[in-house]
Amino acid sequence: MINVTKSYLPDLEEYNRYLEGIWERVHLTNDGPLLRELESQLKEYLGVRHLKFCTNGTVVLQMALKALDITKEVITTPFSYVATTNAILWEGCTPVFADIRPDDYCIDPDKIEPLITENTQAIMATHVYGNACRVEQIQAIADKYGLKVIYDAAHTFGATYNGRSILSYGDLSTCSFHATKVFHTVEGGCIVTDSDEMAQKLHFYRSFGHRNDDYYSIGINAKNSEFHAAMGLCNLPKVPSLIAARKQVFSWYDTRLDFENITRPTLTPGVDYNYAYYPVVFESEAKLLQVVDALKRNEILPRRYFYPSLNTLPFVAHLAQPCPVSEDIALRVLALPLYPDLPESDVDRICQIVNETVSANVASIEQ
Ligand SMILES: *Cc1c(COP(=O)(O)O)cnc(C)c1O
Q1: Band of the pLDDT at 360, cuts 50, 70, 90?
Q2: Which pLDDT tens digit goes with each residue over 96-149?
Q3: Where are the domains of the chain?
Q4: Looking at ligand 1, which atom is closest to the CA of residue 83?
Q5: Taking CB atoms and a 6 Å cutoff, what residues make up the pocket around ligand 1?
Q6: Which among 176, 231, 306 is the best mutation to test ligand 1's pocket, defined by most ligand atoms within 8 Å of the CB?
Q7: In 30-95, where does DSSP find H-type helix?
Q8: What fold is seen in the domain 12-235?
Q9: How far apart are CA 20 and CA 302, in angstroms?
Q10: CATH architecture type of domain 238-366
């Protein structure tokens, strides 16, 4: 069975050494020494000023909205994982969907401005597949209208834009360290900011809003444990070699797929990529479904990602905000298996099945 992703696991002995330390200290969670060490290594690796390691990449989106006092309309992308829209709704805000660019599937800055109303308070955009949004254009719009910018950077760990971690852009930026991501802590995530004041606020938010008997603000439980931090400490030093291995798999796909009837998203100029996903776009949903079937028959499980377009989710259907580009891409895009130790022979097989299915389709339509 070949899945769309496969989690990297460090040497068990290495992880065990961290466990021995946890057993000695009996400090399992609540700002433990491994968490602090991971935060400091992450800040150095990413080159960011403040970073809070939290329980997942969803709660940090909610914390971001709360920390910036966002309560009304948030202009957001329909092409993301459902967590982006859920966070907005969960915080009692209203998502306003701006369609995506047809080339890289990130939010289209030209679609943002016409949607701004007196209730608009923020833009929450996703850096899709590890590529960067048009951050300068988005910031210019935010500055013009006094809006906050939050980036869901769940895909971008290890990727840079103009030499800086993509996580360093926006008022607040979040990442997921879920088991399926480029860098993972089993479950986990982080929120990044340049602002000392915001970092202090997020620090208290993460653990119920208080320290000992001093109660500062509303809070939630987004603390992560020493066990998760230990996994991060094992995995972080491996990130450069894991990205290099992904890049190798990428190049096999690039050279073996027949691009006559398949397209791929482009990269924003200035991005140094992390090879997070290998999405391909077919001519129609029917073709995509045929490819999925053919791969499944061979025990290969790709993933429709992202699907569906978030503006069509049943619980936002009443907002009736059409996004034709996103809706079209979501029907036709498929993420092919990609992980660091995916063998070349498997990529060969996947490409052969995809190429054959796509060209068989073309032949049968032409008849
Ligand atoms: C994975 C992901 C999330 C959610 O992260 P979790 O850690 O699973 O909560 C949010 N947004 C995007 C774009 C993601 O890919």
Answers
A1: confident
A2: 999 999 999 999 999 999 999 999 999 999 999 999 999 999 999 999 999 999
A3: 12-235, 238-366
A4: 10
A5: 56-58, 80-81, 83-84, 126, 152, 154-155, 176, 178, 189
A6: 176
A7: 33-46, 59-67, 82-90
A8: Aspartate Aminotransferase; domain 2 (3.40.640)
A9: 38
A10: Alpha-Beta Complex (3.90)
